Queue: 2 jobs
Job 1
Amino acid sequence: MNKNTPLNTGKHPDLKIEVAIIGAGTSGLYTAYRLVTDKKFKASEVQIFDMNNKLGGRLESVVMPGMNFWGELGGMRYLTSQEIVTTLIEGYPLTEEDPAKRTPVLKDKMTPVPFPMGDPTKLLMYLRKERFKQDAWDVAQKEGKKLATRYYLNDDDYGFSSDQLFNKIIYDVLMADPWVAQKYSDKIIKGDSIYDYSFKLTSEDWDDIKPKLVYNFPNSPYDRRKVNDLGFWNLIKDQISQEGYEFVANAGGYYSNTINWNSAEAFPYMVGDFSAGTIYKTIEEGYDSIAYAVANSYMEHDGACIWSENKLLTFTKEHPLIHTHKYQLTFLNLKTNTTWNVYANKLVLAMPRKSLELLDQNNFFFNINENSVLNTNIRSVIMEPAFKILMGFEYPWWKEKQLDIDSGHSITDLPMRQCYYFGTDPQTNNSMLLGSYGDMETETFWKALSDDKLLFEVRAAKSASLTELHELDDVQATQMMVDELMNQLRELHGPDVTIPDPYVTYFKDWTDEPFGAGYHAWKAGYSVENVMPYMRKPVADESIHIIGEAYSDQQGWVEGAFCEAEKMLQEHFGMHRPIWLSPTYYLGW
């Protein structure tokens, strides 16, 4: 797997091309790869521009000194139900059980491996200063008991795990709508146990339900309102009380799942991505390999170029000198701090919300007086902060006999929220932990510590020299942050566990520009079925397109970025579905 993709940090003043793609994240790279490999354009006519010095956008895999495996600072896994990303990694057809008999799509070989979620009989849950094993609810339920926690749940919610409560809420709301109950009751199933709900709804079913679903609870302030117009926090509180909300928000591990985002969009997300039976995989060579593999397939073609460290400032139509090309793009070359122009006939903005907002908002396209609908729709998503702290330890202390944890993640209501036990190098015994998976309101807790000037002092470990470690000085978490995180790790795991200090850290805050967020969520009240296709071509007589994870129906996933790019290519570039993608795979609105 080659991650040394050549990037051009220079410039080519007055470059004339057909398609300018802004953003070398997964949606931008995929667009270039498809346009060129399907011979829609020559590679010299399709060029990619990015202000960063690496590929992959919010994917970033790193190897820490003293360890011979990859850790993830950004996106880190995929679902096997996500067909584009799975096929690009694993080949096609996916129905072929033997991977050796599948035909690869990309030249670079990637090694799919399970993303281990660990053993719930060993993994911890630490809530309101009380420690459980993650299977404690199941154990109690099998014995006919209800697990008592320090949350004062409603009588009919008492004893449910957070996952079970999410399912119960979604079941009750769906079945309270007579139309949904009549049409889909065979796919919305209540089991024999009071805790057991299952949903066999396809993505197409959900897209049928989401815009129409009505909230039918006569004693509620939200009675008869569209679920699409309700915030998820509002709905959860109405169903299971504020105390119930606190429980599912804390025990679920992600505050971003329970913020006040669009309830209709939250429903399939909660029963699909975070339910039992979901199969996660990752790439042994690091999850950002998917971006590099797509980029390399584009770069194989003569004239292909990825202009890195070139920041788009603005684009205009009024350029009297060039009559052959529709748009003039002005870039700032970050190496030389000088500007240069590129001329293109089509513009693909493969960018999240914050990156779009950093562009010149007074130009003809973004001007609020000209395009108020675009302005409103750009802000139809919530920017969800996310940051990660990888920590290197000299041995896997979580595998010691008191814990005996192999992999997976422990969850807490402390500001660290989750830690993932990432892996151990068999040669050195050095081990990696994702020390915090902060999101939403915990972000301000860590931001105050990350702004401190005193950085963590790396120290030598087996096969990790100080020289090598000092190369990571500028990505160390602050000493205060590490000290605070160690306190929380020790509190989460309990007084019987001895946790050593790390020898190295790696800190990434995705709220930093140009990303502005780790991932995105639709706001309540927006018609997502209209906004998604709108963003792919916001202005009828302009060849300007906006794609990416932010405005997809799989926010937070690479697949969302790929699906938006693929739909844009089919709708606005006249391209056919690729032969490697099954004809029945649903790409969404």
Job 2
Amino acid sequence: MSSEISVGSVGWTTTPAVREHLERAELDSLQLWWQAANYLSAGQIYLMDNPLLREPLRPEHVKPRLLGHWGTTPGLNFVYAHLNRAIRARDLDMMYVIGPGHGGPGLVAAAWLEGTYSEVYPDVAQDCDGLRRLVTQFSFPGGIPSHVAPETPGSIHEGGELGYSLSHAYGAAFDNPDLIVACVVGDGEAETGPLATSWHANKFLDPATDGAVLPILHLNGYKIANPAVLARIPDDELLSLLRGYGYEPYLVSGAVPEAMHHLFAATLDRCLDEISSIHRRARRDGWTQRPRWPMIVLRTPKGWTGPGTVDGKRVEGSWRSHQVPISDPRGDPEHLRQLEAWLRSYDPDALFDDDGAPVQRIKDQNPTGTRRMSANPHANGGLLLRALRLPDFRDYAVPVEEPGASTGEATRVLGGFLRDVMRRNADARNFRVFAPDENNSNRLNAILDATARTWVADTEPDDDALAPDGRVMEILSEHTCQGWLEGYVLTGRHGFFSCYEAFAHIVDSMVNQHAKWLKVAAGLAWRPPIASLNYLLTSHVWRQDHNGFSHQDPGFIDHVVNKKAEVVRVYLPPDANTLLSVADHCLRSRDYINVVVAGKQPAPQYLDMDAAVVHCTRGIGIWDWASNDQGGDPDVVLGCAGDVPTMEVLAAVDLLRDHFPDLRMRVVNVVDLMRLQDEREHPHGLSDAEFDSLFTRDRPVIFNYHGYPWLIHRLTYRRHNHDNIHVRGYKEEGTTTTPFDMCVLNQIDRFNLAIDVIDRVPRLGPSAAYAREALQAKLIEHRHHVSTHGEDMPEVRDWTWRAR
């Protein structure tokens, strides 16, 4: 049974009958550190001058715009103070992840008290001038955000969007056997779907080889304006819920600081003892059962130690303390008086010396060196990053004697490469693959020859490839996979995420946050590059004919392209050898979000490995073997990006050659989608001269694209020949049907493409009428055939490229 440790039994009522766990001097020092952190947190929200209140507070000392979040911060500072005590006492390697990201002033305050902030930012020194800069910069133009951000030492979790703290924490703990990640989950955050699922991450944590996560569910009762659900259900119901998730929860509840210090210290020590025991049994004694990991439920008032009432209304212990509890100290003399009284209640003269530095008793509470959570190298993963040992991807090449003459399954070939990446890095334990129950479906089965799926829960005899130390992370939650991957990569390792294309959208917001993190981190010299986020989107729109309309959506590309050009890369390799080349490049890259789209079904193979490497290095190029405009200008350019659109372009070229032997056609294939953009907009963008040499300045361009066609127009709108670029792509036409019928429904098929060429090449004119009629007849024949036989016409199903 778990323990409930509380001060009093109702609301914030407390009793003095609390067993003392701390020595008096230790208790007083803890209280002093907490006071300092709370003072600095409030000061960051309010002050732009007079940071130590060495003179009476005046309106001009207060920021004109008050931004920030006080309500959650004192609880976060309280936990931080106690974690520091445990780190010093036990020499722990510990990180701090906070879900309430708007508790940013607390983590900035802690980093400054620990000295890390001044080491990273020397102009924010531990003196009066540095302290003035510290408080002024918070939520101030040209300063730092109100939430935990890349600028905050010790952080891997921005927290601007709620729901991902626990999955990030577990991602950090995987393969870090000596690391303990203390993760504070806010009670508002706990209402999100991603957070609710991520409690199950404890079924994937191997106590023999991984670190530990200590969840701390912080119940302060309120969100912005509403009660928090988990704070308003009975304690027995809450504890039953958490036990059902597989945890051993300990409840610490109260509001009297001295009593709460004793109670929390005792509970934290008990939890750390249990974690140590779990690791010892697994590593020394060979214990293989899934442990029941400890966690803490911390119930404290929202806005703890802040003003009790403002304007006659309750603030501490209320939703009114969520952001800025005293709203107008510059304009309201009573508010100014109340703010000064609140700040002085922390006794700043006892916290800081004459120079503005923390007094020695506070400094003595900090761990030293990299044991400081704000200086833990795991929270700055580029410091720990080791390059992967990669096999030569050329060794996995699919033989291609003639373009289009053979078939292959691109992602199955990739699986063999990733299998050996896994093997080569087994000792380093710095590479994992992630998928929402789709690794095998995405044809990456070969990876399971090198490792199992991670699984610490119960097993049955006919289960396939499950083991506690497996390195294939599968849970049917895209959010959790994404969070694990981000936590893993941000702490200095490498990962690969495969997903059904349509459902990558589930992590759109998480990609937003990570892209913003990368953008900001790239401007911080003290944060070295980290491994890229690598996505394989497969089971894609053009081969989701069997699952139907719900599974047909290529729009994740559009979403990613909205992010900063320095961060995003999008690749559409047309066959297995180009996929291998792209995958090798992505695994070597740093600080990017790489999106690779590739099919898993048998498909034509076009380029041998040497040609594939050249083509992928260029990112875009003319396929001379498919073109016949050598020695003159083309009548038409046929562009293509994506495996199925490429095949349909080649089939259209085949048809057009039969009908118009003298029609000069140029085929341009795009692997790196960002090559289409202007060089002024994206680092991979082509110059106008390069673009014009491929697509001409005045000839019609029929572009067959994997996704939504308007993205190509957006990428090319500045080009000289944009008015002549006509894009075919997915236009929200889909159902459960045949593969080729999906193409016809969206008019990316060979017949519609050939008709488009006829209509847009002026010299063909009326002479093409019979050919056009024949192609339209083929579309009618196709419709009749699929509705009668339930499969595509043999000439479509069995088509292969004919060399001429």
